[in-house]
Write a structure and sequence with these properties.
Chains A, B: Keywords: Glycoprotein, Golgi apparatus, Manganese, Membrane, Metal-binding, Signal-anchor, Transferase, Transmembrane, Transmembrane helix. Chains A, B: Belongs to the glycosyltransferase 43 family. 2 copies of one chain form a homodimer. The first copy, chain A, is an alpha/beta fold. Chain A has a single domain (47-275), classed as Spore Coat Polysaccharide Biosynthesis Protein SpsA, Chain A, CATH 3.90.550.10. Chain A is built from 10 helices and 14 strands. The first copy, chain A, has a 7-stranded mixed β-sheet, with helices on both faces. A two-stranded antiparallel ribbon of chain A has the order 6-14.
Chain lengths: 303, 303
């Protein structure tokens, strides 16, 4: 076999075929079955980083809760998950969970112990003392130290027991600079839906809250997210142990926004994309019997 | 510019470069951040189809529960999700949810109403009547009609309120032909962990159940999955309204296996990958007041 003679036109044709094949491969290849509505916006670089702050504490259902919550974080590539444990040190339970979920590179593990005087005691009902204050403030401090005011980002408070849809995070991507996004929350405050009320010009004029509607911002922690630049502009915006029950949301929001500046999301507040679910405390009566007999059902097993 | 002369060796070099570039593109490109442990087995065609059967019924937390459960299904590409509603007809709530999750092509929506005499009445405690019997049997019927005995598959009963890890489904992929896989379940039967007990040869000899340990198979519905071929071999294996409380698992298993044939999974039953969580019934006192006044917090909104 001798030499092959190629004309310039033939070389151009070969190059075009080569480019077409590469474009075809890069466009059709899908490694996993993301829902289509999400795929279109999955170019992570174009998206703001969503800092999702999750205060948590040890109890029998903790790993179960964090495991199912990790799934929505896995599905939304622009979330940076900040888990803050109410403890002196971070735990191997959370470290292992983040490792197994493949989330080490886009998560931060912190600990911040609630001061003893603010801790729930024995039979205190769980609403009698503010919860998550120390932990959320530790996360806010971390965010202010590790981002700059020019970074595009959103800060969201994501409790470990609520139910969050993937679509909710799509909505957060739409939050404008220097604004706070708001949306309805299901199953909270004694209502099926607690939601912002809009006027004809789609400006938020109030909320439909039935519980303490006199609060400046009568909404749930799951019902808003804050543009990152606002946290840099208002370093005084934090949570406080000094405010009345139900006023934590109002406490941070009063520093960063006013009612009419809130940005209504989730199809102009007509869709529920997050639910205030609560998990039952499991009855461990048989475990208690074992314990009294010096035994355990879970020796060496992390539950 | 004249012709370009290429020797055979030069053509081979160009082809090799071309192939290397294509291999590089196809190997490095990742559309989403799946955890690494999962990526290795993400070649869907090599995997059995896991038929996950979820009985469900309308209540305020239903959409919240199914939404967070849909995330683990989205993350595991070889799951086929069979949702069976306790109703005369399938609902648009479930249809919309499957559509938005991008799961239409790998799910089946069924309905099967529990006969009135077996339905929980008013203040019956939720364990007083068997639940999910009619729905799980409808799903088993669908599976037997729509698969053949030579298909590779696994059948799992996935309730809508438990917490499931992605790793659990990796374990199910290991279930051998004509076998039933078993593993520990967290927070069930009054214990932190209810688990199979193995002897020195890693054969299952019993369970550590404290509640009704005399049952033939004293384990939870979340603690086992059945190789598809067994369901074709034993068409009589179904659930029954006629058995005592806590005996549904034993009822189906007695037709398809014996204790010593159970296949221990989850690191020889030393890891907890699924938890029997329960979601609180939300207090909707304010909604009730609105209802009495002829109002609602969720007109036109699906919660």
């Amino acid at each position: 076999m001798g030499e092959i003679h190629l004309r310039p036109r033939q070389i151009i044709i070969i190059v075009v075929i080569f480019v077409v094949i590469i474009l075809f491969i890069t466009n059709t290849r899908q490694n996993c079955e993301f829902p289509k509505y999400y795929r279109s916006s999955a170019r992570k670089d174009d998206l703001p980083t969503i800092f999702a702050i999750t205060p948590t504490y040890y109890r029998p259902v903790q790993k179960a809760e964090l495991t199912r919550l990790s799934h929505v974080v896995m599905l939304v590539p622009n979330v940076h998950w900040i888990i803050v444990e109410d403890a002196d040190h971070t735990s191997s339970l959370v470290t292992n969970l983040l490792q197994r979920a493949g989330l080490v590179e886009r998560s931060t593990q912190l600990s911040a112990k609630t001061p003893t005087q603010f801790k729930l005691q024995g039979k205190d009902p769980n609403w009698s003392k503010p919860r998550g204050v120390e932990q959320r403030n530790a996360a806010l401090r971390w965010i202010r130290e590790n981002t700059s005011k020019d970074d595009r980002g959103v800060v969201y408070f994501m409790d470990d027991d609520n139910a969050y849809s993937v679509e909710l995070f799509e909505e957060m991507n739409k939050i404008q600079a220097e604004r706070v996004g708001v949306w309805p929350v299901g199953l909270v405050g004694g209502l099926m839906v607690e939601k912002p009320i809009l006027n004809n010009e789609n400006i938020v004029t109030g909320f439909n809250a039935a519980w303490r509607p006199e609060r400046p911002f009568p909404l749930d922690m799951a019902g808003f997210a804050i543009s990152l630049d606002l946290l840099h502009k208002r370093p005084e915006a934090v949570f406080s142990f000094e405010v009345e029950r139900g006023y934590q949301e109002s406490e941070i929001l009063r520093h960063v926004t006013v009612l009419k500046e809130l940005q209504p999301l989730a199809n102009l507040c007509k869709e529920v994309l997050v639910w205030h679910t609560r998990t039952e405390k499991p009855k461990l009566t048989e475990e208690e019997k074992l314990r009294k007999a010096g035994k355990s059902s879970f020796d060496g097993i992390e539950v």
